[in-house]
Amino acid sequence: MVHPRVFFDISVDNQPAGRIIFELYNESAPKTSENFRALCTGEKGLSPLSERPLYYKNSIVHRSISGFMIQGGDFTKRNGTGGESIYGGPFPDEDLSRPLDSEGLLCMANKGPNTNNSQFFITLRDCPHLNGKHVVFGRVIRGYDIVERIADLPTDEKDRPRAPVVITNCGELMLRAQPQKEKAETRSASESVSDDQHSHKKRRHRSESMDRSRSRSRTQEPRPASRSRSRSVDSASPERKRHKSSKKSKKEKKEKKHKSKKDKSAVSPSRARSGSPSRDPLEPVGETESQYDARLEREENERIEAARKRELERVARRLKEEEERRTKESGGVRFKGRGRMKYLDPELQRDRT
User: Fold this and answer.
1) SS3 assignment, position 20
2) Across-strand partners of 325?
3) Considering all CA atoms of the chain, what is the largest pairwise distance in Å, rounded to the nearest integer?
4) Cβ neighbours of residue 226 under 8 Å, at least 6 residues apart?
5) Catalytic residue among 68, 78, 169, 173
6) CA 95 – CA 179 distance, rounded (Å)
7) Which of 95, 201, 252, 315 has the greatest number of beta carbons closer than 10 A?
8) pLDDT tens digit string along 250-305?
């Protein structure tokens, strides 16, 4: 079973920090997992109570305790006193049997039993003193280094990070299509059985028609008048057999050709060239869990590489601007090379003299 996966894109002090990906335990805590998933996608729209979007986007991490946990999810008051669930109010605890026994666990924050809303926290170590008090409904599967980075930020006297930590974007990571191997196997098996039945019926029908034609020819054939006639009939019989066999072979060739045409039309040209089995055009291409993980890792690496390139370009622009400013301030004097050799612009020096 593939668990739902959601993500947060985090920025620290208005600079992108990276992406955190969560896996949700929807089999043990379905209501809690669905609440968190829907708040990540924002699909529920505006709240009828607070008239705010039921959405984690642009909310903040309002509490951070190094070596313990980070907390967020208050998108109504942004200080730890608000928050709202998709169910219109607090909802009850689900599975309290799962222990808080490691770092990177996603848990519901509450004000006591059965007071869950939208606030959550991520553990930075095992928390046995919280066992049986908070619902564990997921875990961090990528981006735990970003959680640690948030936890290391300086905080004020109320454990609020001094630099703003914002969820700039969030959503659900969808599996492209469920694997359809079993369906394809059953379909191919049923097709082969139906083909066998069809060919068996054809053979049976052909043999019955041949028997009828033989019986007809026997009833209509006149009795031989003389020995010479019987000899001529006997001599003609091999020719008749050859004629029948040639007719049969022609008929079989036609049937084979017709069958091959049907097969070609059923398989698309690209599939026929590649030699892969025929597939229903409306059937989606399957993606296994390992392919899903590989795709997520590839997309994350591409995103990190693009962010790194943007940062390098920004630094290069800033250095160039500083160099130009220093050159103007020093009246055309620039320092070049590894040893920072002094370079005097002859044009500017001529103007001075």
Assistant:
1) strand
2) none
3) 143
4) none
5) 68
6) 30
7) 95
8) 667 667 766 665 555 544 444 444 444 444 444 445 667 777 777 777 777 787 78
Distance CA 341, CA 351 (A): 22
- The C-alpha atoms of residue 272 and residue 259 are separated, in whole angstroms, by 15
Can you tell me the distance from the alpha carbon of 7 to that of 70, in angstroms, rounded to the nearest whole number? 16
Set 19, 134, 139, 142: catalytic member: 134
Instruction: Write down the catalytic residue from 121, 124, 139, 153.
Output: 121
pLDDT surpassing 80 at residue 350: no
| Confidence (pLDDT) at 297 | 75
- pLDDT classification of 344: cutoffs 50, 70, 90: low
**Residue with token string 């590489």:** 305
Q: Which residues contact 49 (CB under 8 A, 6 or more apart)?
A: 84, 88, 89
pLDDT band at 203 (very low <50, low <70, confident <90, very high): low
- Separation CA 46–CA 75 (nearest Å): 12
CA atoms within 13 A of residue 49's CA, in its CB half-sphere: 12
Q: Which residue type is seen at 266?
A: A
* Residue 92 structure tokens: 């009850």
d(CA 49, CA 37): 20
Which amino acid is it at 42? G
Tell how strand 165-173 and strand 341-344 pair up: unpaired
Active site residue 71: yes
Q: Where are the beta strands (DSSP E) in the chain?
A: 5-12, 15-24, 61-65, 69-72, 105-108, 120-123, 136-142, 165-173, 333-336, 341-344
For the chain, report the end-to-end CA distance as a whole number of angstroms: 82
Tell me what the mean pLDDT of segment 50-67 comes to. Answer: 94
Active site residue 110: yes
User: What does the pLDDT read at residue 69?
Assistant: 96
Q: Is position 63 annotated as part of the catalytic site?
A: yes
Residue 121 annotated as catalytic: yes
Annotated active-site residue 130? The verdict is: yes
Question: Structure tokens of 201?
Answer: 């019926």
